[in-house]
Amino acid sequence: MDLIKKAQEGGHRAIARLISLAENEGPEAAAVLKELYSATGQAHIVGITGPPGAGKSTLTDKLVKKLREKGNKVAILAVDPTSPFTGGAILGDRVRMSDLNLDPGVYIRSLATRGRLGGLSKATHYAVKILDACGFDYIFIETVGVGQSEVDIVRTADTTLVISVPGLGDDIQAIKAGILEIGDIFVVNKADRDGANRVVIELQMMLGLNAEKSGWIPPIFMTVADQNQGVAEVIQAITDHFTQLVESGQLVKRRKDRLQREVLELLIIRITNHITNKLDRQGEMDQLIEKMMDKEIDPYSLVEKLLAENLK
Amino acid sequence: MTEKHIRVLVAKPGLDGHDRGAKVIARALRDAGMEVIYTGLRQTPEQIVAAAIQEDVDVVAMSLLSGAHNHLFPKVVELLKEKDATDILVLGGGVIPDADIPFLKEKGVAEIFTPGTPTNDVVEYIKSQVK
Fold it and tell me: What is the pTM of this model?
């Protein structure tokens, strides 16, 4: 495919087109993903999550600039939530990364979650594969960490950074149990503000209870991203973490888990769509709902019946 | 196949710092179900075009209140052409005298929406133009 060739040569427009194709899940999407698959596996995928206002985009901007100094090609996927009411979204993370716009070695794409609850859209996974196959050394995925959405990012990234910031009221809120288990590197940004040290101490206490996971003790850094302070140390930690993942065999394990999850997810979606589309086509869905309301059939027996009919 | 979402880049080229209008438009487009990439203040035409290409947007909507529209809007159109991206719809708004509108359209700006335009007009226009 000509578009793939141009994308792998580094053409931003071609890369952008491929991501859109995959995002819209049209007929060509599968062809693109199939063709690119064998070229994936080279990039270091870094997840950046944290509450709104923590300074994720500003920090990402500084981290990427440092990586660029060393000649790395970097892609950034900035994911923001889609409004559940209107289906629209305001994707404003680029605002903090304006300087990187004109750097040909940096590609930035904003994605909306489009109804997916885990914090990352399906398109994010496709985009990561496309960018990986196009030769980017690092792929940063930036998402808002609220509630359960951190789960998706840790499953997609090799290294996950959790960003906190002092003065959010209840400091522990930003350090919920789930995040502690998934963060590989913790950053307290806007550390020039009051309360920064307290956040670090609270993190240390909570992390102390979890100790190390697979040979890596998550470090905690203080940064003032908009002043470029603390950035070099974070980069070093990202590099060190990747080395440790490779040496301990964890990288391979995580990637295998990721592949298994992806296949299962795709299977579930395809099978569900197959069955519900058939029901819709035959106008059966409404009838079945009526039957259940009239207590003629219960949902559990119905599902067994549908499975038996469809999976022979 | 998922539903198509119209993607719009809202940008402020040039040096003026008045972004209320741009934000109003951004919100209106979001409420109409579009994905709005908001790039903020003080963007150069080069930055706007680079972002538009990476984001594969359908529309570039620019707001300008400094008077530099006759230079900056056509510059964006020209750069998009250079990058082979003439399929992107270019729209403008802000403080644009009526007398300048024919010139801008001739230079490739599809439509200009001046202050007081109901946001719904902008939404409907975009929906009618983007396939």
Answer: 0.89
